[in-house]
């Protein structure tokens, strides 16, 4: 089960200015809040959740930067020439790491991440999840988001297009469930999505 | 690319003023209130979502606005786009006490799915179980299988410990086993290209294009799919979680003590034929169907898929199938007999296919779980896994993580086969050497189980040489990979000389030792390799590895000291001294390592003080051969301090006066050398800590062998003069000179009263008792202050 999905900015390695910003996050279900909801308990809980997501984003960013440095790749992947080219997902850096219990989530969790151009995508999973499936789902989500949100067009942004992101997640990652979708299923779902939500 | 635009938008969203937010809310109120689902509402909701999600602090929204959002979720006419946004906004605000949403009023499954996503995000246990009950009711009812069920079924994995889930288990079993084997028909969209006579859809196909031979699974394809086929996919996707946590407990897992007996007894009783399923209770029935499904997946995964994405899915399905089979066998040992033969064949197939290496891990884990009962040699399987996989696949980041996770999680299962894992530590370290940032914490947790008395020395050598291993792995990749493939190594670092050296037969032995797969029981001095690999020391990957080594050393030593006996501790201490100046020269690596090695050396001496006396000869050699402190003098400081502390009869009766004298002379000569020599570019100025520790140690030794006192006093006076003189100014800073002066004075004062000196500088073991410090007659600070006062008074009485 996926606990959270997030999209965040990826700065080039050794860039000091700016911050890692979470552009979109979706938490499926929640860790249990303590029973007594004090007057500010709910707000504190929300603050905690946002901080947890930000902590994951920062860790993913540093892991990605370290991996890029180790591979000797250029700092930021060059933008593809035309927006019709498919996104080079199979060469995109990806990795996984474990989050210990309490740091920052209550339960131990695994994070699978993917860095495409200057966006980072991450899935926060339960500790013993099928990582092969998680990786392929993450690549699929990244491809769908790039395609349906036209992220390669200059000036594109995904901050004001949350409805499309939600639509994609509702079909391909419903309630955080990783799905075993073969290619034809994916095409079928995509057609359904494009038909229901014309661009 | 995205940062600039995103930054300004996020800032706007965060800094939105209350009036603007109020205006946005009233716009939404107006639009939703009259059920205007047009593009204005979409735009407004998008902005609202951004405003709510952009900040980690809560935003106060108007009550009526929130109520309208909730109402839109339950409204039958609201389009999906807007409903999703409303749900997203409500979810972003959770946990929220002003939520009045319940699932009781929702009619259809799709809306229930949306409402459930909001309610589950509240983090309230009672809400979660209510949602679960509602969803269960809808899923178990005999409603026709519309698309809404697809969206609702995954909710069940989020609600655990439900009761009375037998009906859903039965439905899951039906969806898994009895989904239609005919393709679905295309939705007639009309238009120019629709055929006048709809063609009858044919049967589903396998991933290699052949017609399906058996029931429908996730690896069956077709042009279009029916609803029950969709539910088949979803049911399998949540199967493992459902078997583990859902359902009414199922058969309770027997105790681990009885389990192996139970397993072996059922093996002999059961035949290979499967039980007629409709006679079984629901949980057992579901398990039976799950078993058949997994067997079919294993068979389907051997086909050659036509599309690349499908072959990736085949591997994922294989992993999942094995994991589910593992769960089934744990819950009901009667499955074991049928599973073992299937998995043994699978294991043989996977061993020959390098593309499927990731699927080997769950198979190995299965055999570790159940190997005893199934009379399968789990040791051979683990052996093969640990020998082949790391050496060939160390460069794949997610596989590395999975492998190490497998080792960590399977530790309790290894049992008496743990020696296999321990002996393979050189191979395991390859993962760490190649990608250290994500794996360092994993190895820190894994090290205590990998270390044992037999391999500790070899492991320490390898840990100290870990950056060297990284460089060697880089060369191995460069020399073995085909020119056309994309390089896995750092292409920006050119090292032609290194590559030649790698292929040079003269160094073959050393490289092979470094890149060995198993613990060899011998150690080789790899200093020649350090020089050869120097050009690669600037590599980012090597630098990252070098940063991880100090952390691993701490973990190693805290593990080793748990069980090491005296001999091993001595061995390790000497190893530290020996290796402290034969380290791979990565920038800053040596300095960091010296700090860690020196503190570990002291820790070892503290655990076994008599090692100073036992290894006196080697320590003497070390002190004599240094020729000056290097890199901050940490090693020297520790060694000298240890000598001062522990070279006495109270720690080891074998300490002789000659030993004390020999050390004294060596240290005196060293102190003379470091203070007399002028600093140059090659030999930086000696740090004051080294000087003070040398002086203190000399004084300690003198307090044990009183003949030396005059020599020391003379030396200390000379040091005082030196520190006070203006010539010392440029060599050491003013503070450093003052520190040396203060220490020299204190020591001189102490030596004027030799018995007190002995008490202070060579205390007996009881000094660690608190009584020593509380008792006014024996307290050390009191004694020292008394001495100082007496001496100063004496000095004041003397002229000059």
Protein architecture, described:
Chain A is built from four helices and five strands; from the N terminus they run ββαβββααα. With 199 residues, chain A is an alpha+beta fold. In chain A, a hairpin with a 2-residue loop joins β4 (109-116) and β5. The longest helix of chain A has 31 residues, at 41-71. Chain A is globular and about 45 Å long. The two termini of chain A are 30 Å apart. Residues 248-275 of chain B have low confidence and may be disordered. With 800 residues, chain B is mainly alpha-helical. Helices cover 66% and strands 0% of the residues of chain B. In chain B, α10 packs parallel to α14, α12 (239-245) runs parallel beside α15 and α17 packs parallel to α19. In chain B, strands 1-2 form a two-stranded antiparallel ribbon. Chain B starts with a helix and ends with a helix. The longest helix of chain B is centred in the middle third of the chain and has 24 residues, at 308-331. At the A-B interface, β2, α1, β3, α2 and α3 of A face α1, α3, α5, α6 and α9 of B.
Topology (elements, then pairings):
The complex is a heterodimer of chains A (199) and B (800).
Chain A: E1 2-9, E2 22-27, H1 41-71, E3 94-99, E4 109-116, E5 119-126, H2 131-148, H3 162-172, H4 183-196
Antiparallel strand pairs in A: 1-2, 1-5, 3-4, 4-5
Helix pairs in contact in A: 2-3
Chain B: H1 3-14, H2 18-33, H3 39-54, H4 63-74, H5 80-92, H6 109-120, H7 125-140, H8 147-152, H9 155-158, H10 166-177, E1 205-206, E2 220-221, H11 227-237, H12 239-245, H13 256-269, H14 282-300, H15 308-331, H16 336-351, H17 357-374, H18 378-393, H19 397-414, H20 418-423, H21 425-434, H22 436-450, H23 456-464, H24 466-480, H25 496-503, H26 508-514, H27 527-532, H28 540-563, H29 566-579, H30 589-607, H31 611-614, H32 616-625, H33 634-646, H34 657-676, H35 688-704, H36 709-724, H37 728-731, H38 734-751, H39 754-761, H40 770-774, H41 780-797
Antiparallel strand pairs in B: 1-2
Helix pairs in contact in B: 1-3, 2-3, 2-4, 3-5, 4-5, 5-6, 6-7, 10-11, 10-14, 12-15, 13-17, 14-15, 15-17, 16-17, 17-18, 17-19, 18-21, 19-22, 21-22, 21-24, 22-28, 23-28, 23-29, 24-25, 24-28, 28-30, 29-30, 30-33, 32-34, 33-35, 34-35, 35-36, 35-38, 35-39, 36-38
